[in-house]
Amino acid sequence: EHFFHLAAIYDMTASDEMNETMNVGGTHNAVALAGKLDVGHFHQVSSVAASGDFRGVFDESMFDEGQRLPSPYHRTKFESEKIARDESEVPWRVYRPAIVVGHSETGEMDKIDGPYYFFKAIQRLRHWLPEWVPLIGPELGYTNIVPVDFVAKAMDHIAHQPDLDGRAFHLFAPKSIRSGDVLNTFARAAHAPQLSMRVDKKLIDARTALVRARDNQLDAPQAAF
Questions:
Q1: Number of helices and strands (H, E) in the chain?
Q2: Are 136 and 109 in contact (CB under 8 A)?
Q3: Which is nearest to 93 in space by CA: 171, 150, 164, 186?
Q4: What's the predicted TM-score (pTM) here?
Q5: CA distance 204 to 194
Q6: Which helix or strand (DSSP H or E) is residue 16 part of?
Q7: Beta strand 142-143 with 177-178: parallel, antiparallel or unpaired?
Q8: CA-CA distance, 71 to 49, in Å (whole number)?
Q9: DSSP state letters, 37-76
Q10: Number of neighbours of residue 217 by Cβ within 10 angstroms
Q11: pLDDT at 163
Q12: Which residues pair with 168 in a beta bridge?
């Protein structure tokens, strides 16, 4: 009755060829198998990455809005969702989780990625500095994090509701949160120093661009007169 396609490669450092093989080729195979088995419903696990760098609200009714897809992962998650939409011979539903982390009660997680990359840095800070030392760091903008058990339960619930075929569903926390607040939450749990002042990333990017432009100008060959 239900065919769930969960398999994909989620690694921002993976090559374009690997993303193409796993995410695009894998979805072609899954859709074809679901059709041959004549399943009741095909459930495609996509990603918020399908929205690429679209600016503004990207809702569940939107898909191909001309958004730029800045990495092989973004591109192949978009293309795999397109395959499910265009090629499935059976009714389909699409699920787009936000950033998935460990179980909400046990914390168990089977993959180190996303926010987990900050854990070692926080551990080193705790080793070098006492907890009360205030820190200054960049504010990287808003993010949305969901525990894996929420994602699984949401998919199970939606999959068994009638009359929802041909639609996409964003599996999100109700409100996004600032990345700095996420880091401070981790730091509090680890008894490490927290960011007491956060600098807007736009200011940092602007300064970096100015420095790069200045360096390029200094390195440019000067005309001889």
A1: 7, 10
A2: no
A3: 164
A4: 0.82
A5: 20
A6: helix 16-19
A7: antiparallel
A8: 9
A9: HT-SEEEEE--GGGGTT--S---TT---S-----SHHHHH
A10: 8
A11: 97
A12: 94
With residue 178 as reference, give the H or E element that holds it. strand 177-178
Residue with tokens 């909400």: 104
SS3 state of residue 123:
helix
Instruction: Please answer whether residues 188 and 113 qualify as being in contact, where contact means their C-beta atoms are separated by less than 8 angstroms.
Output: no
Contact assessment for residue 119 and residue 186, using Cβ atoms and an 8 Å cutoff: yes
Q: Are 181 and 194 in contact (CB under 8 A)?
A: no
State the Cα torsion 134-138-144-146 to the nearest 10°.
-50
Torsion of CA 42, 47, 52, 58, to 10 degrees: 80
Tens of pLDDT, residues 39-61: 999 999 999 999 999 999 999 99
Query: pLDDT of 154-191, one tens digit each?
Result: 999 999 999 999 999 999 999 999 988 988 999 999 99
- C-alpha pair distances (Å), 193 with each of 114, 119, 129, 148: 21, 13, 7, 28
167 HSE (CA, 13 A, CB side): 14
Residues in the chain: 225
For Cα atoms 166, 72, 168, give the angle at the middle one, nearest 5 degrees. Answer: 15
- CA distances in angstroms from 220 to 80, 206, 216, 223, listed in the order given: 44, 21, 6, 9
